[in-house]
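Quick one - inputs below.
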Amino acid sequence: MTSPHPDYYYPDYRSTPARAPRLARVPLGGALLPQVPETPAAQFTTTTADLTKHGQAAPLGERIIVSGRVLDGDGKPVRRSLVEVWQCNAAGRYAHAKDTHDAPLDPNFPGFGRALTDEEGWYRFVSIKPGAYPWGNHTNAWRPAHIHFSLFGNAYARRLITQMYFPGDPLLEWDPIYHSVPEFARSRLISTFDLGLTVEGTALGYRFDIILGSRRGTPTGL
Amino acid sequence: MTLTPSQTIGPFFHGGTQWMMRADPPPEGWIAVQGTILDADDKPVNDALLEFNLDGNQDWRFQRVASDDDGHFTFHLPAGGFAHVTIFARGLLRHLFTRVYHRSEDVPKLVPADRRDTLVTRVTREGLDWTVHLSGEAETVFFELG
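Output:
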């Protein structure tokens, strides 16, 4: 199977040349790899999955539901697995000391959440739609709106950190981080607008399914 | 079925990855290791996330730590032990898998002999340290898991 993952060295994204390893990776059999850490369910409540509930009042922006299933490469649900998300606010600013973008902070939006998948592999976050922001990679470089996802899956070799994008975003065409992915796999990173997830009068729904490698079988590059 | 591709963790992950960033004291008898992560030009990588997985079902079998402005981080190993390490950073479009060993004789022989020391802690006046070179002449050994 062809790997859907980007190469380490991708100079259009200017941070890669100094950080990409140049030597061949050493192949290692899957035996004797550690188990993924268990995530006690008690740590994950509806509050940690609702990014709009972390302040004194509601955050500014367009409220959204982001939900989907985490599946393995055989289409089986990845159950009781930790999903972490983080994102900037509606104005395109992260609540992070090193984000110097001249856009307002929102005191009611720290911008991170956690959830465990259920028995069918479903997760569900409530949030606000993140803004685009400039990042200096090239002239007029603006990141398309995105939410960072971190997944533990069910095996050490299946660990994944990725980014979810929004359908129809014109900035995708110019984004080297998105384009670092082989063309056949790019659409996996774009959520779909979903009226079924939309909550009447409250929030627009976006569906984002995440496919991790199988517990056994070809890990396709990771 | 096409798998979901990897994307960089970016520089602003710290709020999102707080689970298992440990502040409690490690188990008795474990040793602290001072880590450093450097790029191809030996400049500190100031926005890496490192995850340390240990074999077995022991306490502290998972630790996460972010590098600081000098590329420094601290982690803990059982004496004589080793950890599976996963590394994320801005500029890494995919994460990296490596290992860190307390003792050089435990490094698997499939690692080329002249590069084994990149996976071993080093004794210094202050204690133990381990330096990750993402690239450059002393590039750390990274693994492809099959």
